[in-house]
Specification:
By secondary structure, chain A is mainly alpha-helical. Chain A has 20 helices and 5 strands. Chain A has a two-stranded antiparallel ribbon with strand order 2-3. In chain A, strands 4-5 form a two-stranded antiparallel sheet. The radius of gyration of chain B is 17 Å and the shape is elongated. The model of chain B has no long low-confidence stretch (mean pLDDT 96). Classes of the chains: A mainly alpha, B alpha+beta.
Chain lengths: 510, 110
């Protein structure tokens, strides 16, 4: 008798590897032109163990269930004026950074995992890449839908894809991902699936999702839950992929190590924006950047690299620098945003006493000495009606594209300037980490689209700040400048005033 | 090390070649010890710009946002150009005293 129903294992086999075939009239290297040029040697694609046995039909069912929950919350948020439930309108700046900086990366990830799903020679890994590609598209869409509610009431969200391609601080995440997608398939896997989604992902998702939970943003929290099970699949894929590469051939080890070194540093620099968000933009704080780094990198990463040591993999180069800098980076990045609030689509503000207390407590070794005096001086200038702005455009790092604000590890008063020469031209980088990345592949980074240089080349709408901001689609006077005095603040205060109960009438005497 | 690429000998356009800046050099300036200015500042300056114009007009317009700038004596400042000690001559143009495209000028004031 013929079995009427396939077992799960059979079904999985048919839906994944069963769809593959041996080419007979085309050469393998013509079908998979990207498979070998990076120097990675794979001897047996069948040795790839699928870390999760998920077939497309189960996937749709599972995701649809999560979508139903998410959209129910989004609807309820819209019907109940959920925006009034957040701690303070300043919280929204974290959401703005997310939609402007992270959501477009989800879309990029969707595109490039689709590319891997076509171009990796192993069917098992192709299927995993296909699932992840769909996940990333779903994340992009659900983030847009979730945050679109805030777009009705708050500034800086209205044109995030356009801004992502043009704004100076958004060139940081954009160029990060462009770097990955212009690499070969195995470097991309190591960069995004392993270094970013496995090693560093908690430093991205925990701050944003816990930040949302702490600050009453139920929509973003629900999105976070909806993405969480996908993320754990992505993490598993990243770790398994790297293990697979390491096990296939010893010659892969130094190549993978080089990628881990590079992408650890690239990811770490990118996350300095998240550190700034955590330490400065959340009205109700989750933890400090320094604490997050200790928990999610030093402890978790330490255990991971101890485990990978048996393959000959060591901790990423310059992890010691990241550790030494953890008391500084978030403050230095906040200083960048404060300097250039006139040109950003997020708000900044003067740090108040309560916030100063928190920062002093969280950063006992660095804050009071190096940053508090700066903030107090800025606050005094603002109170005197002379809010400090930097009227010059910053020098940018050729690799991470962040304004070169980071200081020497042993000297927090001195900016870390690094310079390289390539074919007679100078290239400036912010750190040994970024300098090494540049010097390893100068042909790549000489092409960097540095927003400041582009303005001076005349490619950004004009020579004046208002022209450039128009070209960015920044709604001037609303999206930019300080929170104090913004339309957002005025609206928030009016809402809060409206909710204050009228004075209760005095109880009648019995 | 050259980039690992699909086709050997890969190279791309150098995006910030001096020809792209309409006759200007990019020059980075940094006032040391004043990190209220978060980073060095990028300036597009023709190489014919006299150092006096940089010192008397351009730097003050940038740094006057610091209340301490008014007490600064630039004549007594210590300068470096691309990492080397530098004694700028007020009467000479930047291009005549070693400043090139993407040079970094750092200065220390009392």
């Amino acid at each position: 008798m013929v079995a009427r129903k396939l077992s799960l294992k059979q079904k999985y086999g048919h839906f994944t590897r069963g769809l593959d075939w041996e080419p007979s009239y085309q050469k393998q290297e013509d079908i998979f032109p990207f498979a070998t040029y990076e120097g990675i040697k794979i001897h047996d694609w069948n040795a790839w163990e699928d870390p999760f046995k998920l077939t497309m039909d189960a996937y749709w069912k599972f995701q649809a269930e999560k979508e139903r929950k998410l959209y129910a919350v989004i609807d309820s948020m819209a019907q109940n004026n959920g925006q009034l439930g957040i701690t303070d309108a300043r919280y929204l700046n974290a959401v703005k950074i997310f939609i402007q900086g992270v959501t477009p990366l989800e879309y990029q990830a969707h595109r490039h995992f689709a590319h891997l799903a076509r171009h990796l020679p192993g069917a098992g890994l192709r299927v995993a890449a296909q699932m992840q590609s769909i996940d990333e598209l779903r994340h992009c869409q659900t983030q847009i839908h979730t945050i679109s509610h805030y777009n009705k009431f708050f500034d800086g969200i209205h044109d995030f894809t356009h801004m992502h391609d043009r704004l100076w601080y958004l060139s940081v995440p954009k160029s990060f991902f462009d770097d990955a997608t212009s690499a070969g398939p195995f470097e991309f896997l190591t960069a995004i699936s392993f270094a970013f989604e496995y090693v560093l992902t908690n430093l991205l998702f925990v701050p944003f999702m816990s930040g949302a939970a702490y600050n009453g943003d139920m929509a973003t929290v629900t999105f976070g839950f909806s993405a969480q099970s996908d993320e754990s699949r992505h993490m598993t894929l990243g770790l398994e992929a790297v293990r697979f590469l390491l096990e296939q051939d010893e010659a892969n080890v130094p190549i993978v190590q080089g990628w881990i070194d590079k992408w650890f540093w690239r990811g770490y620099r990118l996350l300095s924006l998240v550190g700034m968000m955590m330490d400065y933009m959340l009205p109700k704080k989750v933890m400090s950047w320094s604490e997050a780094w200790e928990t999610y990198y030093e402890e978790a990463g330490g255990a991971l690299f101890a485990d990978l040591a048996r393959y000959g993999i060591r901790e990423p180069k310059y992890a010691d620098v990241a550790k030494a800098e953890k008391g500084h980076v978030s403050h230095q990045v906040w200083s960048i945003f404060y300097n250039y609030a006139q040109a950003a689509a997020v708000h900044t503000w003067d740090v108040d006493d309560q916030h100063l207390d928190w920062l002093r407590e969280k950063y006992p070794e660095t804050f009071a000495q190096h940053y508090e005096p700066r903030y107090r001086a800025w606050r005094e200038q603002a109170e005197a009606g002379k809010r400090f702005y930097n009227d010059g455009l910053p020098q940018l790092c050729q690799v991470c594209q962040i304004p070169m604000a980071f200081t020497e590890v042993d000297d927090p008063g001195t900016i870390s300037f690094r310079v390289s020469e390539h074919q007679g031209e100078k290239y400036h980088t912010c750190s040994d980490g970024c300098r090494d990345i540049f010097e390893h592949e100068p042909e790549k980074y000489v092409q960097a689209w540095l927003p400041v240089h582009q303005i001076f080349q005349g490619n950004c709408g004009g020579a004046t700040l208002p022209e450039v901001l128009d070209w960015y689609h920044i709604n001037q006077g609303a999206d930019n400048f300080d929170y104090a005095g913004s339309p957002e603040e005025e609206q928030w205060n009016a809402w809060m005033e409206g909710r204050r109960p009228a004075a209760f009438p005095a109880a009648a005497a019995e | 090390m050259p980039v690992v690429s699909l086709k050997p000998g890969y190279s791309g356009p150098v995006r910030d070649r001096v020809e792209n800046f309409h006759g200007a050099y990019l020059v980075y300036v940094h006032w040391e010890g004043h990190l209220n200015f978060c980073s060095a500042i990028t300036l597009p300056l023709p190489p014919t710009t006299p150092f006096a114009a940089l010192a008397d007009e351009i730097l003050p317009s940038l740094y006057q946002a610091d209340p301490g700038w008014s007490g600064v004596d630039l004549a007594a400042a210590r300068w470096t150009l691309d990492g080397e000690d530098w004694s700028p001559d007020r009467t000479l143009a930047l291009g005549e005293q070693g400043v090139g495209h993407k040079s970094l000028i750092r200065f220390w004031t009392a």
